[in-house]
Design brief:
Helix content is 33%, strand content 23%. By secondary structure, the protein is an alpha/beta fold. It folds into two domains: 193 residues, 3-Layer(aba) Sandwich (Carbamate kinase), CATH 3.40.1160; 138 residues, VC0802-like (2-Layer Sandwich), CATH 3.30.2130. 46% of the residues are buried.
Length: 426
């Protein structure tokens, strides 16, 4: 096999393109520009591609799932992962073909072909190894490498798994970590890795969800985030990175930038250089919509811990919110309702107690920032006062090192975001 002339170094950049970046021919052309710009700068892109678009659009993951659930609503997790992986494969081949039609040498790889090895947990698998031989071979051959995000394969039998909602972020971070640890390509060329680029349809990580605002005084893009802020926001509803990806990026100190694929705005930088406090008590007000709430009696001392542990084992993101001295409550996303019910039924099967589910819809609104560290009681009092003054009722709260989170009725969630954003972030 003929390889191009060896170079002193090969400069690689991992780029991740979200579903909106590939949902239409116009957006695909703009995403292609971002890739070609890197080649103009003598960078070799490894492009991680998400499935095209959202629910209601052809080839989106939601539409693929709907296709089989029209036949019968229950589908085995193994087959569901096999089906859901198709969306990324379609968009990856389409993007690789688009660049090839413009004169670039490309190769499209599935997650498994790119070497992403996962555990056996269907629907929310964890990456346990990366064997990047095909990615490195593509770079050595002078190709732009396209990798299907959101998927991997198991170590034995190579069963396809998916990495959970937002899993293409996880793919991109894992590849960036692996390439940064690879000093040379197969034939000895030095490998250097530029900061990871995460492309979305917004100008960076926003101070709040823009959908809650209808005027020019709404949220803005943050110039920088610390790793701890990124991890906290990813768990509390902000569109930064998938939580598993954020945790991995922090662990390995991956430098990255979140930016708009349509513009040249710098975006939001997250790197070791940004890991310092901003001096402001809060930098963002993320939120989560349409949660379900269930509670259990606290007189059974270990019950709450058992439920929380079971949900962590099943990789269900949940929020334990103190209610009163007799009960403890958990909030989870509504899409996880059936999984939660199965856990509760299993744990409570031989006990003379029941869990109470709320019939209301709930929202979680959080105040996040390095400035909260060491001041949670003070910030909690300020946040509660601001919401009470505007007529927003808080039904529970919990804190972390960098956040104060409040449970409100779903119909007051947007109001709560606006109040806190205006009071603490604007």
């Amino acid at each position: 096999m003929d390889y191009p002339d060896r170079q002193p170094a090969v400069n690689v950049v991992v780029q991740k393109f979200g579903g909106t970046c590939t949902e239409s021919p116009e957006h695909q052309a703009l995403a292609a520009e971002r890739i070609m710009e890197c080649r103009d700068q003598e960078l070799w892109p490894v492009a991680v591609i998400s499935a095209m678009g959202r629910e209601g659009q052809p080839y989106s993951t939601a539409e693929l799932v709907k296709l089989v659930r029209q036949i019968y609503p229950h589908i085995e997790p193994r087959e569901l992962d096999l089906l859901m992986s198709c969306g990324e494969i379609i968009s990856t081949v389409a993007m690789a073909h688009l660049l090839k039609s413009r004169g670039y040498d490309t190769i499209a790889l599935s997650g498994g072909q790119a070497g992403l090895v996962t555990d056996y947990y269907h629907g929310h698998a964890a990456i346990i190894d990366i064997r990047p031989e095909e990615v490195l071979r593509g770079l050595q051959e002078g190709r732009i490498v396209f990798v299907a995000g959101f998927q991997g394969v198991t170590p034995e039998r190579h069963v396809i798994t998916t990495l959970g909602e937002g899993g293409s972020d996880y793919t991109a971070v894992a590849l960036a970590v692996t390439l940064a640890r690879t000093p040379t390509l197969p034939f000895g060329d030095e490998l250097r890795v530029a900061p990871l680029q995460i492309f979305k349809e917004v100008d960076g990580v926003m101070t709040a969800n823009p959908k809650h605002f209808d005027d020019v005084t709404g949220p803005v893009a943050l110039a920088t985030l610390t790793y701890d802020e990124m991890v906290a926001m990813s768990a509390l509803g902000a569109d930064v990175l998938q939580h598993s990806a954020a945790v991995m990026a922090r662990k390995h100190q991956v430098s990255l930038v979140v930016k708009n694929f349509k513009t040249n705005i710098p975006g939001t930088e997250i790197s070791p250089a940004t890991s310092r406090t901003s001096g402001r008590p809060m930098i963002a007000i993320p939120d989560i919509a349409n949660l379900i709430l269930f509670s259990v009696p606290t007189r059974h001392g270990r019950l709450a811990g058992q439920l929380g542990g079971a949900m962590r084992k099943e990789r269900i993101l949940h929020y334990q919110i103190p209610a009163d001295e007799d009960r403890v409550q958990f909030a989870v996303k509504r899409v996880k309702y059936r999984d939660v019910v199965q856990i509760i039924e299993r744990i409570l099967f031989d006990r003379d107690i029941t869990a109470d589910f709320s019939t209301d819809a709930w929202g979680l609104v959080s105040a996040v920032g390095e400035g909260v560290r060491g001041r949670t009681e003070e910030v909690r009092a300020q946040v509660a006062e601001a919401l009470a003054r505007d007529g927003v009722t808080v039904f529970g709260a919990f804190e972390g090192e960098l956040h104060v989170s409040l449970l409100v009725k779903e119909e007051q969630r947007t109001q709560a975001v606006r109040v806190l954003h205006q009071r603490f972030v604007d």
